[in-house]
Design brief:
Layout (H helix, E strand, L loop, with lengths): L9 H28 L9 H31 L4 H24 L2
Helix pairs in contact: 1-2, 1-3, 2-3
């Protein structure tokens, strides 16, 4: 059934996640463009902002590749419902956040 209240399929969910991640990556590129084409460093001289930008860059680029891999697996093997796909993506995102923040846990 189609309509606003229809549940998203796994491919629709993956395309939505991929578009969102790509928008984040585009926003991160805008910060680089500001510092490249102007005399301002766009905050890269501030330690916490630079660390946050780097973490977002690493996580979003890896999440984009992982989402494409999941989309290819879904096309080949029909993973199923969007909740399964969102669970897999949430687990991978949690793993990436933990991996990116481990160096800050111990100083």
């Amino acid at each position: 059934s189609s309509g606003i209240n229809a549940e998203y399929g796994s491919r629709d969910t993956l395309f939505l996640v991929l578009a969102t991640v790509d928008l984040v990556i585009t926003g991160l590129h805008v910060v680089c463009a500001i510092s490249l084409f102007s005399y301002q460093e766009a905050g890269f001289t501030l330690g916490p902002l630079c660390i946050t930008w780097g973490s977002l860059w690493n996580i979003s680029s890896r999440l984009s590749v992982f989402t494409i891999m999941l989309l290819a697996a879904d096309l080949c093997f029909n993973i199923g419902r969007s909740r399964v796909v969102l669970g897999i993506l949430a687990g991978y995102l949690l793993l990436q956040v933990v991996q990116a923040t481990v160096p800050f846990w111990f100083g």
